[in-house]
Write a structure and sequence with these properties.
Blueprint: H1 9-47, H2 49-60, E1 63-66, H3 68-76, E2 88-94, E3 104-111, E4 117-129, E5 134-140, E6 173-178, E7 181-186, E8 191-194, E9 200-209, E10 213-221, E11 227-229, E12 237-240
Antiparallel strand pairs: 1-2, 2-3, 3-4, 4-5, 5-6, 6-7, 7-9, 8-9, 9-10, 10-11, 10-12
């Protein structure tokens, strides 16, 4: 037990109170520092999915796709001809085009199979979107597209690739990673594209990519809601386990 003498008692009390105050200040600042550290960690954890989502897209989406399995399954199930999908052969290949960006895929679609008529040819351009916490994808056309047929096999032309700034790019997709599934939907739930005649056409789409499959749904409608392209039943074009990585 500490003996307190007259005249010293108050001095020791002040000293003790000072020590207690200092200890409290140190503890409080320690708590604030730790809280700040956890706050930064939370921000980092929230931002982490963006590079992870981009890496998954660039690793999983490139490939050679064919709907032959879906076509065969629908035939075996007795699906009415009007509801059957036509065969499509689609390529998504990553190309090195720094003049456009670091994450670009060449896309090409053929009707009827790998040697069929080309019905689509263009670029898919990806970029992080920190505000929406996802990855944006723009589908863009290329000037003189015929020259870039099978572009994934023509590296000597990659440096000459550009996109048509007067067409497309008005309906970006928003990609997010949900467990092992990549889901791409239109920002805001839908948008309008402009036809060659200059008319606005509502566009609706949803794409889903996993390591085993690609599912693509996209419909375009007229001013009165009539279906212009796509499917009335909204059944997506689907590819299951039929890809060869390129």
């Amino acid at each position: 037990m500490i003996e307190r003498k007259p005249g010293v008692h108050s001095v020791r009390s002040v000293a003790e109170l000072s020590n207690i105050l200092v200890e409290r200040i140190v503890k409080r600042h320690s708590v604030l520092i730790i809280a700040a550290m956890f706050g930064l960690a939370a921000v980092s954890a929230q931002a982490a999915p963006l590079p992870e989502t981009m890496a998954r897209l660039m690793a999983v989406m490139p490939g050679t796709y064919d709907t032959i399995d879906q076509v065969a399954a629908e035939a075996a199930q007795g699906t009415p001809e009007a509801n059957c999908h036509e065969r499509r052969h689609v390529i998504y290949a990553r190309i090195d085009t720094p003049q456009i960006g670091p994450n670009v895929l060449f896309r090409q679609g053929r009707k009827g199979g790998p040697n069929g008529e080309i019905i689509a040819r263009g670029l898919a351009v990806f970029a992080p979107d920190t505000e929406a916490n996802g990855i944006r994808m723009w589908l863009r056309n290329m000037p003189n597209a015929e020259r870039f047929t099978d572009l994934h096999l023509k590296k000597e032309l990659w440096g000459e690739v550009s996109f048509d700034s007067t067409y497309g790019g008005k309906c970006p997709f928003h990609w997010r990673l949900e467990a092992d599934t990549l889901v791409g939907t239109l920002l805001g739930g839908g948008c309008q594209i402009t036809s060659n005649a200059g008319k606005a056409m509502p566009f609706d789409a949803r794409w889903v990519v996993t390591s085993q499959s690609l599912s693509i749904f996209d419909n375009t409608y007229g001013a009165k809601g009539q279906l212009m392209s796509g499917r009335a039943d909204k059944r997506p074009m689907s590819i299951q386990d039929s890809r060869v990585k390129i």
